[in-house]
Write a structure and sequence with these properties.
Shape: elongated
CATH topology of the largest domain: Rhopdopsin 7-helix transmembrane proteins
Structural class: alpha+beta
Number of domains: 2
Helix content: 55-70%
Largest sheet: 5 strands, mixed
Number of helices: 11
Order of helices and strands: HHHHEEHHHHEHEEHEEHEE
Strand order of the largest sheet: 4-6-7-9-8
CATH architecture of the largest domain: Up-down Bundle
Length: 434
């Protein structure tokens, strides 16, 4: 290839690197998908890479449009930046790797000192050799050439990469497959481009390899942190289920036992049947505590109907249930409708001894979602409700729906003492195991 073609190709490579770095910096500043420490490190890394690629662009522009009065003042700085910021990028990523593992690595403080000392020594050598003209030479006619120790920059980068490799190997059992692949790309891609550089007419493959490998590392960091955040939400949702069950059980058990005692004095046969229902309810409660995944809608409905049948022991005909499910072939997180029905009963029959509560449970299917509605007539006319004013059990249901399947809960009071609670379950989100 002729010099002009190589220069143009290098210019496009450097320009692409600038665009990628700028976009990556924007993502980090927006705080997408990662913790603060990771964002700070990757922002600094991509700023360093941005200066590195910008300096390469300036050098190639001076080849394509040679004018000594225009390019001469900036060539020396640009030439030095290509070396310094390539080393700085490697140093920053090494610091990130050490910080990433410092909670489990006993020698992390010593590694910080070692990498910092190596960077300081490397910067001193680069500055000294640049002044002496051994690293990079700019001539008065606006041209430049590399000095006889220009490989020093590559050597320093390689040392930092070896440190990264050794740390990664020592923690290989703790790395996910994605992290292992990303570290492998980060180590091998720049080294491969360095080896092939001598046969590719001085194309900026090293710059391309470094930028691409760091971009892969950032994408993996975003994905891993997002997945960990989601897993933490699901773990929190499981804890909320346990908390809800521990809150629901005591007062329900006492109320139902009192009702069974009263029935037993009047109708022993009916009391025996009620005890069977009560036993099934206890078993379902105990089973719900150990459920690790979504359950069929009909299982959740059967549990709610069993709960309502036991509550009817206390309230008799004042509590009525109607269910008209149009579609039942879907799954939902357990302990979803139970707290809603309990809330309705407590805030209607529990507050007004003369009230009558009609509960309706219905379902519907749409192209992108399932909907489950729990509505009731007989509520006090309290106006529009808002989630901040709802009890913890209802807010927990809403949080769990979002964490487990991306669903949502909407509660609305309507005129005439009617409450509507709408559960939305998106079809495109697979319900995750808790």
């Amino acid at each position: 290839m002729t010099l002009s073609i190589v220069a143009i190709a290098n210019l496009f490579i450097a320009f692409a690197g600038v665009l990628v770095c700028g976009f990556s910096i924007l993502i980090n500043l927006m705080g997408i998908g990662r913790d603060k420490t990771t964002r700070v490190f990757f922002t600094a890394i991509f700023i360093s890479l941005l200066i590195y690629n910008s300096s390469l662009m300036l050098l190639e522009l001076s080849k394509i449009f040679p004018r000594e009065d225009v390019w001469l003042p900036g060539l020396t700085a640009a030439g030095f930046c290509t070396y310094f910021f390539s080393v700085l990028t490697a140093f920053l990523f090494t610091e990130y790797v050490i910080t990433f593992w410092e909670n489990t690595y006993p020698r992390s403080s010593k590694l910080h000192l070692m990498s910092g000392a190596l960077m300081a020594a490397g910067a001193f050598i680069l500055i000294a050799e640049q002044i002496r003209g051994h690293l990079f030479i700019v001539y008065e006619n606006g041209t430049y050439s590399t000095g006889h120790i220009h490989s020093l920059g590559y050597l320093l980068v390689a040392i930092f990469m070896v440190i990264d490799l050794l740390i990664s190997i020592s923690h290989r059992k703790d790395l996910s497959i994605r992290q292992g692949v990303a570290f492998g790309i980060y180590i091998t891609l720049p080294l491969i481009t360095i080896l092939f550089r001598r046969w590719t007419a001085d194309l900026y493959l090293v710059a391309l390899g470094s930028t691409l490998s760091m971009t892969v590392m950032m994408i993996v960091a975003i994905y891993e942190h997002a997945e960990e955040y989601r897993n933490q939400e699901i773990r929190n949702a499981k804890l909320k289920v346990d908390m809800m069950m521990s809150q629901i059980q005591p007062h329900i058990l006492l109320e139902i036992l009192a009702a069974i005692k009263e029935i037993g004095t009047k109708d022993p046969d009916k009391a025996a049947a009620v005890i069977d229902d009560y036993s099934r309810f206890i078993r379902r409660n105990m089973a719900n505590m150990s459920v690790t995944g979504p359950i069929p809608f009909m299982d959740e409905l059967d549990y709610v109907l069993l709960y309502i049948s036991l509550q009817q022991l206390r309230y008799g005909d004042r509590l009525r249930i109607h269910y008209t499910p149009i579609v039942t072939d879907f799954r939902m997180p357990n302990i979803t409708m139970g707290p809603l029905v309990e809330f309705v009963i407590q805030n209607s029959l529990g507050k007004d001894p003369e009230a009558v509560c009609d509960i309706t449970i219905s379902t519907d299917e749409f192209p992108n979602r399932y909907e489950v509605e729990v509505s009731a007539k007989g509520m006090p006319d309290s106006g529009q409700a808002d989630m901040e004013e709802m009890p913890a059990s209802i807010c927990n249901v809403n949080d769990r729906l979002d964490a487990v399947c991306g669903g949502a809960l909407k509660m609305e009071y309507l005129p005439g003492g009617i409450i509507s609670i709408l559960i939305t379950l998106p079809k495109h989100n697979k319900i995750r195991k808790q």
